[in-house]
Amino acid sequence: MNEIEPDTRDWADVLEGGCSECGFTGHEDVTSVPDFATTSAEAWNEVLTRPNARERTQPDRWSDVEYAAHVRDILDLFRERTHLIVTQESPTLPNFDGDAVAVESDYRNQDPAEVAVELRAAALAYAAGLSQVSGDQWDRVGYRADGREFTVASLTRYGLHELKHHLHDVNA
Ligand SMILES: [Zn+2]
Q1: pLDDT tens-place string over residues 2-15
Q2: Which residue of 71, 110, 149, 155 is 20 to 30 Å from 78, comparing CA positions?
């Protein structure tokens, strides 16, 4: 059972307007993202040791472990999307329905300690991939299924927003 309302907002609009909830401005330096991803894994490691990490403290919000499992999968997704744009000519980027994946992958019953290890591995892999991006590669483009264009730079800022916002979601 999943009684949480699916999130239908297009969060990519934070790239233009920033996000008042988590403090993302949309002007962040993309070269800072590998370090941020690595550091955020440490914060998640702490979050996932909370005694109530598996509890939904509000019925309409994910538990810490559900948010962490989502972030782990987002990190993999953004690593793959970045790799696609860098290696292919104007690729279409794979879609990701976070709410559907949460149910299919049973985020709710995942083990916090295991998710912490997997999230850290995903964060390090994403950071390593981004560290290889240089010069004109930041301007390469790919397209979401709905036609929205992303450069490697804007995709990376979008990924940074996901990381920042979900830490905010769990008060970390
Ligand atoms: Zn935000």
Answers
A1: 578 888 888 899 99
A2: 110
Looking at the DSSP bridge assignments, the partners of residue 150 are 142
11 C-alpha to ligand 1 centroid (Å): 8
How far, in Å, is the centroid of ligand 1 from the Cα of 89?
Answer: 30
Structure pTM?
Answer: 0.94
Region for 26 from its dihedrals, namely left if φ exceeds 0, alpha if ψ lies in -120 to 50, beta otherwise: left
Count of residues making up the chain: 172
Ligand 1 mean position to 19 CA, how many Å?
A: 4
Topology (CATH level 3) of domain 30-169? Four Helix Bundle (Hemerythrin (Met), subunit A) (1.20.120)
Residue 2, Cβ neighbours under 10 Å: how many? 14
- In the chain, helix, strand, coil percent, each to 5? 60, 5, 35
